[in-house]
Amino acid sequence: MIRKGTYVLRIDLGADAEIRVGALGTLSFSKGTYVYAGSAMGGLDQRLGRHLSKDKKVRWHIDNLTMAADSVSALESYPDFIPECSLAQLCMECGMTPVHDGFGCSDCRCRTHLFKAEGQSLERLVDTAGLRPFHQSH
Predict the structure, then answer these.
(1) What percent of the chain has pLDDT over 70?
(2) Closest by alpha carbon to 38, among 51, 19, 23?
(3) Is 82 helix (H, G, I), strand (E, B) or coil?
Protein backbone atom coordinates (compact mmCIF):
# COMPACT_ATOMS: atom_id res chain seq x y z
CA MET A 1 0.00 0.00 0.00
CA ILE A 2 1.35 3.42 -0.95
CA ARG A 3 0.62 5.96 1.77
CA LYS A 4 0.14 9.54 0.58
CA GLY A 5 0.57 12.51 2.88
CA THR A 6 2.50 15.53 3.98
CA TYR A 7 5.28 15.88 6.49
CA VAL A 8 7.73 18.11 8.26
CA LEU A 9 11.40 17.40 8.66
CA ARG A 10 13.20 18.48 11.81
CA ILE A 11 16.76 19.33 10.83
CA ASP A 12 19.36 20.09 13.49
CA LEU A 13 22.57 21.96 12.70
CA GLY A 14 25.18 21.92 15.47
CA ALA A 15 27.18 24.79 13.94
CA ASP A 16 26.72 27.67 11.53
CA ALA A 17 27.06 26.55 7.91
CA GLU A 18 27.38 27.90 4.38
CA ILE A 19 25.58 25.47 2.06
CA ARG A 20 25.24 25.56 -1.73
CA VAL A 21 21.58 25.08 -2.64
CA GLY A 22 21.19 24.72 -6.39
CA ALA A 23 20.01 27.85 -8.20
CA LEU A 24 19.55 29.64 -4.85
CA GLY A 25 23.34 29.77 -4.52
CA THR A 26 25.34 29.53 -1.30
CA LEU A 27 23.10 30.19 1.70
CA SER A 28 23.98 30.87 5.34
CA PHE A 29 22.40 28.74 8.03
CA SER A 30 22.89 29.57 11.68
CA LYS A 31 23.20 26.82 14.28
CA GLY A 32 19.81 25.53 15.43
CA THR A 33 16.68 23.64 14.49
CA TYR A 34 15.01 23.99 11.10
CA VAL A 35 11.64 22.70 9.94
CA TYR A 36 10.81 21.90 6.33
CA ALA A 37 7.24 21.32 5.11
CA GLY A 38 6.84 18.85 2.25
CA SER A 39 4.45 16.47 0.52
CA ALA A 40 4.71 12.92 -0.73
CA MET A 41 1.76 12.06 -2.93
CA GLY A 42 3.79 9.35 -4.66
CA GLY A 43 4.67 7.56 -1.42
CA LEU A 44 5.21 8.91 2.07
CA ASP A 45 7.36 6.05 3.33
CA GLN A 46 9.70 6.14 0.34
CA ARG A 47 10.08 9.94 0.42
CA LEU A 48 10.73 10.14 4.15
CA GLY A 49 13.13 7.20 4.02
CA ARG A 50 15.05 9.08 1.33
CA HIS A 51 15.11 12.33 3.31
CA LEU A 52 16.45 10.52 6.37
CA SER A 53 19.23 8.81 4.39
CA LYS A 54 22.67 10.32 3.82
CA ASP A 55 23.16 7.96 0.84
CA LYS A 56 21.32 9.81 -1.93
CA LYS A 57 21.83 11.93 -5.01
CA VAL A 58 21.07 15.59 -4.35
CA ARG A 59 17.79 16.29 -6.16
CA TRP A 60 15.85 18.92 -4.19
CA HIS A 61 16.79 22.03 -2.19
CA ILE A 62 16.20 20.16 1.06
CA ASP A 63 18.73 17.45 0.13
CA ASN A 64 21.57 19.95 0.47
CA LEU A 65 20.50 20.78 4.02
CA THR A 66 19.78 17.21 5.17
CA MET A 67 23.20 16.09 3.90
CA ALA A 68 24.89 18.76 6.06
CA ALA A 69 22.69 18.23 9.14
CA ASP A 70 23.79 16.71 12.42
CA SER A 71 20.41 14.97 12.67
CA VAL A 72 17.17 14.71 10.72
CA SER A 73 13.84 13.31 11.88
CA ALA A 74 10.38 13.33 10.32
CA LEU A 75 6.84 13.93 11.48
CA GLU A 76 3.97 12.89 9.25
CA SER A 77 0.52 14.28 8.57
CA TYR A 78 -1.40 11.11 7.72
CA PRO A 79 -4.01 9.79 6.90
CA ASP A 80 -6.03 13.04 6.99
CA PHE A 81 -3.15 15.19 5.84
CA ILE A 82 -2.86 18.95 5.87
CA PRO A 83 -1.90 20.26 2.41
CA GLU A 84 1.79 21.15 2.07
CA CYS A 85 1.32 24.91 1.68
CA SER A 86 -1.14 25.00 4.59
CA LEU A 87 1.45 23.14 6.69
CA ALA A 88 4.03 25.80 5.75
CA GLN A 89 1.56 28.52 6.79
CA LEU A 90 1.01 26.73 10.11
CA CYS A 91 4.76 26.81 10.73
CA MET A 92 4.60 30.60 10.69
CA GLU A 93 1.41 30.72 12.75
CA CYS A 94 3.11 28.58 15.40
CA GLY A 95 5.95 31.10 15.70
CA MET A 96 8.62 29.82 13.30
CA THR A 97 10.72 32.23 11.27
CA PRO A 98 10.74 31.89 7.45
CA VAL A 99 14.22 31.13 6.11
CA HIS A 100 15.54 31.74 2.57
CA ASP A 101 12.83 32.86 0.18
CA GLY A 102 12.18 30.31 -2.57
CA PHE A 103 13.55 27.34 -0.59
CA GLY A 104 11.58 24.17 -1.40
CA CYS A 105 8.65 25.97 -2.97
CA SER A 106 9.44 26.32 -6.66
CA ASP A 107 6.12 24.68 -7.57
CA CYS A 108 3.83 26.97 -5.52
CA ARG A 109 3.38 30.60 -4.54
CA CYS A 110 4.63 30.29 -0.96
CA ARG A 111 7.50 32.46 0.27
CA THR A 112 9.39 29.41 1.55
CA HIS A 113 8.84 25.93 2.98
CA LEU A 114 11.83 26.20 5.35
CA PHE A 115 11.60 27.70 8.83
CA LYS A 116 13.78 28.22 11.89
CA ALA A 117 12.14 26.75 14.98
CA GLU A 118 12.82 28.41 18.31
CA GLY A 119 11.26 28.16 21.72
CA GLN A 120 8.14 25.99 21.73
CA SER A 121 7.22 26.62 18.07
CA LEU A 122 7.85 23.03 16.94
CA GLU A 123 5.82 21.60 19.83
CA ARG A 124 2.98 24.03 18.96
CA LEU A 125 3.10 22.86 15.32
CA VAL A 126 3.01 19.18 16.31
CA ASP A 127 -0.01 19.80 18.56
CA THR A 128 -1.85 22.11 16.15
CA ALA A 129 -1.33 19.94 13.07
CA GLY A 130 -1.65 16.58 14.86
CA LEU A 131 1.70 15.40 13.49
CA ARG A 132 3.03 11.95 14.38
CA PRO A 133 6.60 10.68 14.43
CA PHE A 134 7.56 8.78 11.30
CA HIS A 135 9.05 5.31 11.79
CA GLN A 136 10.63 3.54 8.84
CA SER A 137 9.06 0.20 9.75
CA HIS A 138 5.71 0.94 7.97
Answers:
(1) 99
(2) 51
(3) coil
